[in-house]
Design goal:
The protein is mainly alpha-helical and 299 residues long. It has two domains: 138 residues, no CATH class; 129 residues, no CATH class. It contains 14 helices and no strands. Helix 1 crosses helix 8, helix 5 runs antiparallel to helix 7 and helix 11 packs parallel to helix 13. The protein is elongated and about 70 Å long.
């Protein structure tokens, strides 16, 4: 749904470009920045990086529009996909995402500039074609934010945490097809379980050796629970394909258990960041008998 909304926002920017020319320059720039930020957030997800990329893309669009509207639209769409491209697992794929956005933005703008205004029928068809072209960069799949975070943490960590995170990363990628058929509540539960695992991994990287072993056990247990959830999802999809009633109750029970585990492990992560209890005060040194005799003599 977010991709569809992003394509519609980009189409509105292409069609409404001529209306911005008659506005006050400051107001037109403000509207362009808002559209650029909204487009970038819809494409790459809400983050400071996507907001900055969207604002820069809007500024580049405003500057290039005076030179060539096709180049301006190309820069706007490429900037929106920059944050998404950074989540690619390969540098070549990231370049293909940005390059595809440049080409898609340019061709979409060229179609709109060439045919919009000829007639209502031709203009409507041109807008529809431009929207399809603008959606082309989504053909190249990249990691979602949670998967990207798990991959980054796996690179930063050492054994045994790295092995656990690599397995969880593989499970997350295999779950992509199964999650597309789930209701929103179940998708949110599975996402929360993976996010909790990433939160625990971040906490594990910041603790000392005394707490590391306990967190490693918790992370491994949490990853095993996610593996059980994947097996339930596979069984449910097989039941649906065979025409038998899916085990919805079993899936709901497991996702509810994952939510409980998420809360428990979040509490554990908070406890891991607390300061250790203060060391007991050293016992008072026994009085020196010689000094006591000296005090008594002096008295």
């Amino acid at each position: 749904m977010r991709a569809i909304a992003a394509v519609l926002v980009f189409g509105a920017a292409l069609v409404g470009r001529h209306h911005l020319e008659g506005m006050d320059p400051l107001l037109a720039a403000s509207v362009a920045v808002v559209l650029g930020v909204v487009l970038s957030v819809l494409v790459s997800g809400p983050s400071a990086r996507s907001i900055a990329a969207g604002a820069l893309g809007a500024l580049a669009h405003t500057w290039l529009e005076k030179i060539d509207p096709v180049l301006a639209a190309s820069a706007l769409l490429a900037a929106a996909h920059a944050g998404r491209a950074m989540r690619s697992d390969h540098l070549v794929r990231a370049g293909l995402v940005v390059g595809g956005a440049l080409v898609a933005g340019a061709t979409s703008a060229w179609v709109v500039e060439s045919y919009v205004g000829v007639s209502w029928t031709v203009g409507g068809a041109a807008v529809g074609i431009s929207l399809v072209l603008a959606a082309a960069p989504w053909v190249l799949r990249v990691d979602d934010p949670i998967t990207h975070q798990l991959r980054t943490l796996a690179r930063r960590s050492g054994p045994p945490l790295r092995k656990t995170l690599v397995r969880a990363l593989a499970t997350r990628r295999r779950l992509a097809d199964e999650m597309a058929t789930l209701p929103p509540r179940d998708v949110a539960a599975v996402d929360a379980a993976f996010q909790s695992l990433a939160t625990l991994a971040v906490a594990r990287l910041g603790v000392g050796p005394a707490r590391a072993e306990a967190l490693d056990r918790r992370i491994a247990a949490h990853a095993q629970a996610i593996g059980r959830a994947r097996r339930v999802l596979i069984a449910r999809r097989a039941a649906v394909s065979l025409g038998t009633p899916p085990a919805v109750s079993e899936l709901r029970a497991l996702t509810d258990a994952l939510e409980v585990e998420t809360d428990a492990y979040t509490d554990a992560e908070r406890a891991a960041h607390r300061d250790p209890p203060p060391a007991p005060a050293p016992a008072a040194a026994p009085a020196d008998p010689k000094s006591a005799d000296a005090d008594g003599t002096a008295a």
